[in-house]
Amino acid sequence: MLATAAFRIADAFELDGVDAIREWELLAELIVHTGQDPNWRTRPSILDQLRGWHAAPAAKQKLSSRMHA
After folding, report:
1. 29 and 44 in contact (C-beta within 8 Å)?
2. Whole-number Å distance between alpha carbons of 41 and 35
3. Residues 6 or more apart from 35 whose CB is under 8 A from it?
4. For range 8-35, the mean pLDDT
5. How far is CA 28 from CA 20, 34, 36, in A?
6. Does pLDDT of 64 surpass 60?
7. Do 24 and 53 contact (CB within 8 A), yes or no?
8. Among residues 25, 34, 47, which one has the least CA distance to residue 4?
9. Is 16 within 8 Å of 1 (Cβ atoms)?
10. What sign does the dihedral 3-22-24-17 (CA atoms) show?
11. CA 15 from chain center: how many Å?
12. DSSP designation for 36
């Protein structure tokens, strides 16, 4: 994802003021949105846990709703 946005990120370094703030906010939203793994399980693997990665809160909510259904 970052490689795809590299030129846009480089251009953002050239901006100042409100234009810079707006572009960095858009880039942050883009990176967060496209950086999410749609195949993430509700429970991280052992390797993921060793890396310190945790399941997203939405995944935990989905799991709890299935358990109570």
Report:
1. no
2. 15
3. 1
4. 91
5. 12, 10, 12
6. no
7. no
8. 34
9. no
10. positive
11. 24
12. S
Q: Are 67 and 43 in contact (CB under 8 A)?
A: no
Residues in the chain: 69
What is the band of 43 on the pLDDT scale with cuts at 50, 70, 90?
confident
Amino acid at 53: W
Its pTM surpasses 0.85? no
In this structure, what token pair is assigned to residue 8? 């846009």
Task: Report helix, strand or coil for 39.
Answer: coil
For the record, the structure tokens of 22 come out as 């707006």
- Give one DSSP letter per residue of 43-56, joined into a string: S--HHHHHHT----
